[in-house]
Write a structure and sequence with these properties.
- Helices cover about 30% and strands about 35% of the residues.
- It is an alpha+beta fold.
- It has a seven-stranded mixed beta sheet with strand order 1-2-3-4-5-7-6, sandwiched between helices.
- The chain is globular and about 40 Å long.
- About 25% of the residues are buried.
- The model has no long low-confidence stretch (mean pLDDT about 90).
């Protein structure tokens, strides 16, 4: 069983930064808390003692960007990533944003497409693709 929640407390943020350190190979001190962002953590089990995934929502004006969506390697391919992504997207919409965006490496978009994201025409980074989803498409896709 997994559970996911929005966090702001120091212990949970430290767990999120630790996940990002392992998954992205960056030093934990590279990640800095910003109270305008929304931090999300995925736990395995009921006691919230085994963090396995994390994500962050970065605020824009009418839209938001999902950054650092990460899942520890041993918990991938078990629908945990999809669960975390769906919760994160829903949180963006419940926070009042009209669209949710995410950047991903070229050819690494199957999970995004499964949830209902589509390619945006914006080219901002080389070897990266921008994906977007609106509320109507997301919630329609959730019903299937």
């Amino acid at each position: 069983m997994v559970q996911v929640k929005i966090v702001k407390d120091e212990k949970s943020l430290s767990e999120i930064f630790s996940i990002w350190e392992v998954v992205f190979g960056r030093n934990k001190s590279d990640f800095v808390y910003d109270d305008s962002n929304i931090y999300i953590i995925l736990y395995e089990g009921l006691k919230e003692d085994n963090p396995i995934g994390a994500a962050m929502i970065k605020a824009g004006q009418d839209n938001c960007l999902i950054e650092n969506l990460a899942l520890v390697e041993k918990k991938r391919n078990q629908q945990n990533g999809e669960f975390l992504l769906r919760f994160t997207v829903d949180t963006g919409f419940q926070s009042g944003y009209e669209k949710v965006y995410v950047f991903t490496k070229v050819n690494k978009s199957s999970l995004l497409e499964k949830v209902g994201f589509s390619k945006s025409d914006d080219k901002i980074f080389p070897n990266m693709t921008k994906y977007q989803i609106n509320q109507e498409k997301f919630y329609k896709k959730c019903k299937h």
